[in-house]
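Schema walk-through. Below, the input block comes first and the output block second. Nothing else is stored per chain. Lengths vary across the set, and this one has 403 residues.
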Amino acid sequence: MDTKMNRRIYILVSLLCLAVCSCDRQDDTYRQYIVPGGYNYPAKVQEVQTLSGYLKVELSWAVPLDPAVKLVRLYWDSGRDSLSLDYAAAENGRLSARVENLEDRSYTFSIVNFDESGNRSLPYEITVSPYGDGWLSTHAERRVVTAEMRGSDAVITMGTPIGEMTSTKFRYRNSAGNVVVLDETLNADETSIRLPDALKGKFFEYQSSYCPENGIDTVWTNNWVKSAVPISYNIDISKAVATVTANQTRSPYLPQLAIDGITDDDNHKWMSTNDPSYQKVFPKIFVIDTKETGDDVMTFSTFRFYQNPDDDNKSLRRIRTYEIYVSDDPLNPNAGDSYAAVFGTPLISSYLSQLDAVQEAVPSELVSGRYIAIVFKNSYDNTNGFLDLYEFEAYGYAAGKTD
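--- output ---
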């Protein structure tokens, strides 16, 4: 019994000696890396904030409370690039660093504090993505809704801005033929802008800028975009001539008064006859000879009807169903019921409501021609068949003179 007990005690003592010797050898291996009194880690960077810019990023962080920390170093691209900063440059308790000339990709930054003895803090790592041409190429331009002359200026209406668009600028030709870059820009919350003293019938160009949310930089696209269509204008009312079906005019409301540029005057309109023999006769055909020839012949993009402007008397807006034809050949206002066989395919076949005094008709395709015919097929006035047209505008451009 005593012999077995002594043997166990011997084995236990042997194992303990072996463990102590092993630990001594491990201490010898790592003793060269041990700093007497332990390693003094400076305070780690805290409260890091980042902003992205065009091929740049900006980082900021809180100044450490440890007074021994004087310097900080910023590393990126696996330490191949770095930037040193002194906390003496901090403002309002924060130090900022801007890193420029980056690529359009993500970067992981490691921020390390150093104390006066050169001791390094534990690194603070953060990934930031600047934006560049790759990001810019994903953005689409606004759509041009309308571009029309209003007096001597062009009024451009653009579609809703897309994505991160901030503003749009414009370049056009003025009446002297000079290229003008408009100082004013169209902001993202705006849809319409005026181009002063614009040259009618010419293309214009536009270019937009973009900025992501909380981005440092607003970036303009690299190229100007040419408008899909030129700046349109109304027919030249100084030489255009209007006629209407025989016996379908009530004096003194002649058809020429419906293309005289006055849109809301009760004395400047065409009104159909009140003669009982003709007043309910349809179709009533209103024809305009623009008098344009050669390269001045217009391609039409928009037609606009003006009726009684008094919203308290909407029943006086009598025009109902109509068709519009455009032709290079003369259109006869007295074609009668055979007009369809003579005029061909209508450019527009539609109707007007009584809700709005001004209504537009936009063709599905652009058609050019010297002559325009509006065929009025009926009236909201079922009793008398009366019609009155305060003004008719035909907007377009001379395709032969756009450049």
